[in-house]
Amino acid sequence: MVNIIWVMLTVIGIVFAMFNGTMDEVNEAIFKGGKEAVTIAIGFISVLVFWLGLMKVAEKAGLLEKLGNLFKPIVTRLFPEVPPEHPAMGYMLSNMMANLFGLGNAATPLGIKAMEQLKVLNGGSDKASRSMITFLAINTSSLTLIPTTVIAIMMTYGSSSPTSIVGPTLIATFLSTLGAILIDRFFYYRRKRKG
């Protein structure tokens, strides 16, 4: 459905530009956008390679496992239906650690694997379980220590202080994660009282 929406927006925009006489501006925007996309992608690659390499070193050194163990008591309380040694728990912890370091691109496959394992725990049902809803809320709000994607964009565009975003990002993502958990719990207990 999203593909259809994008195609329709593109077609409507081009048809409107043809009737409005602004095809030159549309062509210029297409080529300028393509050039900027390549510039941003190259900036992302350098920063992501650095952080992914650092994550690999941290993983080999056992730091990620220690961080995972540090967060495990909190995560097991957030997901009481998931057994602590189930693969879903490992994928969820890995996803959260990747998000913590601002590696959303690395976190996405881990989040998909976690959802697949949560679906297995849910008996293969198409209806989302409590754990699936909670994980989605936490994953969407994602507490972030180092916003690597934003830092990469700021570096690409020549920011004099690309890491100035770290403090505000930490505060904002902490509050969004806390809000997501509180809202998730509110609706869960409300549904439980009604049912």
| End-to-end Cα distance | 33 Å
Provide the residue-averaged pLDDT. Answer: 85
Radius of gyration (CA) equals 21 Å
User: What portion of residues belong to β-strands?
Assistant: under 5%
Counting helices, strands and paired strands, the structural category is mainly alpha
DSSP helix fraction:
over 70%
> What's the total helix number?
8
Q: Tell how many strands the DSSP assignment holds.
A: 0
Give the SSE string.
Answer: HHHHHHHH
Shape: globular
Specify the biggest β-sheet.
none
Brief summary of the model shown:
With 195 residues, this protein is mainly α. It has helices spanning 2-20, 23-61, 63-78, 87-100, 104-121, 130-141, 148-156, 166-194. The chain crosses the membrane at residues 6-23, 35-54, 133-157, 169-188.
SSE layout:
Elements: H1 2-20, H2 23-61, H3 63-78, H4 87-100, H5 104-121, H6 130-141, H7 148-156, H8 166-194
Helix pairs in contact: 2-7, 3-4, 4-5, 5-6, 6-8
